[in-house]
Amino acid sequence: MEYFLTEQQKTIKKLARRIAEERILPVRAELDEREEFPWAIIKELADSDMFRVFIPEEYEGLGGGCLELCLVVEELSRVCSGVAVSFAASALGTFSLLEYGSEEQKRKYLPSIASGKRLAAFALTEATAGSDASAIKTTAERVEGGYILNGTKQFITNGGDAELYTVIALTAKEKGPRGASAFLVEKDTPGFSFGKKEKKMGIRASSTRELVFRNCLVPAENMIGREGIGFIMVMRLLDRSRPGVGAQALGVAQGALEAAVDYARTRIQFGHPLIAIQAVQHILANMAIKVEAARLLVYATARTIDSGARNFTEESAMAKVFASDTAMSVTTDAVQIFGGAGYMRDYPVEKMFRDAKITQIYEGSNQVLRDAIAFELRKRKGRRE
Ligand SMILES: Cc1cc2nc3c(=O)[nH]c(=O)nc-3n(C[C@H](O)[C@H](O)[C@H](O)COP(=O)(O)OP(=O)(O)OC[C@H]3O[C@@H](n4cnc5c(N)ncnc54)[C@H](O)[C@@H]3O)c2cc1C
Question: Residue 124 C-alpha to ligand 1 middle, in angstroms?
Fold first, then answer.
């Protein structure tokens, strides 16, 4: 397939693949087993300028966009999506600054994110506010010189390991969804601490933690955007980041497909390799079709976003839903092709199967995103161009 990537995009993809194969592959099982944050690999990615990919040149980035980010996430996920999501979550935590940050905030924070010196994270979810994000309870009370944050965020990727957190909190409780605002909170701010570290089914190299705010004073200049636009920002930022989850899913699916084809070539039953059996061939063919379709949808959506399109809610949701359903189905089939061996931790498809599941859940569950797609369909009059 010709994906019409530029020379720079091809170079980025190739470099990400090389790091994944040379540095991540040898340690992925161990990182998963020990549920260990991949600091050595994060450093490697930083040294190879991977964190610069999604940052504009004026802030010491390489000036790439959504597609470049997706290419890196895809290649890292092909080998280990636990590592990939630690990288991708930093991009999600940075989108608030890129889209809504003041010039001063951008100059202050973006160069250190671009160099990989500081990781970022994005904190919206709470115990009582998952799919219904408007139910958040964390408050930000205006006081002289800033805002006092109180509340607890749950399931935050890079929690405890990131230095910079985009935190959504209510500045006007009585206004409901129109009363939320976004803040950039630095890790060492007094009153900010970390709670429970989750033990997860998959993506176990990534950290997922509670963030606890107790009378945490955040300077007024750390508000991102303006008061009351927190939820509008969240919707837009997630629209922008969802192709990245699609790319994560796509990478896992690609890795599982390759592993299944290799295994089917070498596993002999009834005197033939599995790949000579038509029933197995058809499973592999269906896996390949889905992976290719997911790639085209993820890349096309990323290009739509990079073209400066204003509304891409529908495309972004479709890319995430389709790629994540593909990842789940392809990794399930890969385990099936490996048979009993696929159920064992000695083979990579067991981990890929566990890693795939999260892509159907976070950044908008696939049920909620199907609602969003249907909403766009209902409000549109006539056919789309
Ligand atoms: C590993 C991991 C990392 C995460 N990282 C982050 C992060 O970095 N930052 C952050 O803010 N959050 C993060 N999250 C939170 C994640 O985005 C939420 O878990 C997700 O949005 C779903 O919310 P929930 O878990 O509360 O499920 P619920 O909202 O309780 O949903 C449970 C089930 O009900 C379904 N459901 C709910 N409402 C509807 C509806 N209206 N229609 C149809 N079905 C519905 C859902 O699809 C789901 O199947 C992370 C979660 C995990 C597990």
Answer: 11
Residue 330 near residue 287, CB atoms below 8 Å:
yes
pTM: 0.97
Report yes or no: 151 and 138 within 8 Å, Cβ to Cβ.
Answer: yes
Tokens standing for residue 59: 């802030």
Q: Token pair 């309870």 is at which residue? A: 137
Largest CA distance in the chain: 79
If we measure between CA atoms, which residue out of 218, 174, 172 comes closest to residue 192?
Answer: 218
Distance of alpha carbon 69 from alpha carbon 72, whole angstroms: 5
Contact criterion met (CB below 8 Å) for 330 and 290: yes
Encode pLDDT of 29-84 as tens digits: 999 999 999 999 999 999 999 999 999 999 999 999 999 999 999 999 999 999 99
What's the full length of the chain, in residues? 385
- Render pLDDT for 104-141 as a digit per residue (tens, 0 to 9): 999 999 999 999 999 999 999 999 999 999 999 999 99
Pocket of ligand 1 (CB under 6 A): 89, 122-125, 130-131, 155-157, 200, 208, 358, 361-363, 365, 367-368, 371
Catalytic: which of 7, 363, 376, 385?
363
